[in-house]
Predict the structure.
Amino acid sequence: FWDPVENASFMPWLLAAALLHSAIVVEKRESLKSWTILLAILAFGFSLIGTFIVRSGLLTSVHAFANDPERGVFILMILGSFTGGALILFAMRASAMEAKGVFGVVSRESALVANNVLLAVACFVVFVGTLWPMFAEMFWDRKLSVGPPFFNMAFTPFMILLGVILPVGSTLAWKRGKIGHAVYQMRFVFALAVALALLVWVMQTGRTLMGPIGLFLGAWIIFGASLDIWMRAQRKWDRLLRLPRADWGKAVAHGGLGVTMFGIAGLMAWQVEDIRIAEVDTPFMVGGFELELKGVDRVQGPNYLSTMGRVILRKDGTEIAVLNPEKRNYPVAQMPTTEAAIDYRFLRDVYVVIGDPQEGGGWTLRTYIKPLANWIWAGVLLMALGGFLSLSDRRFRVGAGESKRRTRTVAAE
């Protein structure tokens, strides 16, 4: 996590998520118009900032991209003209966009505003942490490295607060809600989430709070989304399939966020990393798995030379996979690359990376066991599916058709 290139794509995602939720308030209550337009400008601007970071070679990353400083200057010019021009127009016209809807402190609108603030602040934290090494070198001539400890400490509290607010905010009424009523409705969901967190706390071998807290938040969001759609169906099974697709899209997307939180919590709390010199035909244990380097071969690829290892992966004495990590060298480009061998499973992934041969014999071998890693991507896919379901809602399709009919009528006249 927290590589500069990954952060470059994560920042506009955070702002775009805030934009989607803010647009709901504009649609339902005709409020937050200026803020929504500003979010749209910033989301686009941060996508250009991310492109600039990736393509200019400004920051060092583990990901390889074609860097071109001249291209970076061109992207910076686009950023300045497009985003700067949009902000100037926004400043000139913002006062003309009056908010019509009025809402109370306890309401769904307020919950969505809190959502927006938390996502925007989280984006700012990622932005500062990503670019701070560059600022430190430019202004103070100091070389700094900002890594996971900073991001985990500064970013995580905002996401925890967002996860806590999300299910309750979804059940609040528009304009004016009752927090006591919403909390009362969520009491069983809260109890289930706490029970799951306590169960994980008791079962885990290493006493870390990250896992139970993350699983609590994931369960809280998933169970909360399930309760919300059940209440929208008025607690009747036959009404579930007749709900608007937008309601299902919301539930699926929020459930996807919960699944992603499961994956992130498991990965950060219980991943295992092992670096050692592995001897051929000498088994060793890593995180409950037995690995054995059977040999290393020289392989000729289409346009590269490869050093390929053969690693047997066992669990409880049973062979479950044969992994082939590689070190490739491309003679034409004179570029070495490392290809990790991965055994994908539902509850965990095992990565094996081969290094250099050692003088005393053996090879450097890195092993990573990443619990619930695939759940992160599964959650992202669910969030995307939720978005598509919402976009396919009848009110958007009917509205689009009505707009086309009006256009044709005007053209005919």
Observations:
- Confidence is low (pLDDT under 50) at residues 406-413.
- Residues 1-165 form one domain.
